[in-house]
Amino acid sequence: QVQLVESGGGLVQAGGSLRLSCAASGSIFRVNAMGWYRQAPGKLRELVAIFSSGGKTNYADSVKGRFTISADNTKNTVYLQMNSLKPDDTAVYYCNANIKEYFNYQNMDYWGKGTLVTVSS
């Protein structure tokens, strides 16, 4: 049993900043990767950023230079620092993690319930 809990969403004006956090807890042997996706109303869920084991990162082109993903491996937590926010960034942001579980050592994908980010113009 693994759970992801996101926090940090809210309302911000264009040009402002927010910092999202996602903490994984439960029967975790190893976190292979954690990342953030987002979904706006009427849109498909899209990748925002991923932090993989070894410190490799990937970003959507739309957020490069504005967003930074980081992780605290000792806490199984990933962060998304969002700067220079635009109205187009408005979406529900979902944390995702690929985790090797204890005992069965099975790699599984988990999703958080999402945190809403609203950027006003």
Task: Report on this structure.
By secondary structure, this protein is mainly β. Helices cover 0% and strands 62% of the residues. The protein contains no helices and eleven strands. The strands form two sheets. Strands 2, 4, 5, 6, 9, 10 and 11 form a seven-stranded mixed β-sheet that branches. β4 and β5 form a beta hairpin. The model has no long low-confidence stretch (mean pLDDT 96).
Task: Estimate what percentage of residues fall within beta strands.
Answer: over 45%
- Compute the average pLDDT: 96
User: Helix coverage percent of residues?
Assistant: under 10%
Tally of contiguous helical segments: 0
Kindly state the number of beta strands: 11
Question: Low-confidence stretches at least 5 residues in length (pLDDT < 50)?
Answer: none
User: Which H/E pattern describes the elements?
Assistant: EEEEEEEEEEE
Largest sheet: 7 strands, mixed
- Give the CA-CA distance, first to last residue: 41 Å
Q: What's the helix and strand layout?
A:
Blueprint: E1 2-7, E2 10-13, E3 18-26, E4 28-39, E5 46-52, E6 57-59, E7 67-72, E8 77-82, E9 91-101, E10 107-111, E11 115-120
Parallel strand pairs: 2-11
Antiparallel strand pairs: 1-3, 3-8, 4-5, 4-9, 5-6, 7-8, 9-10, 9-11
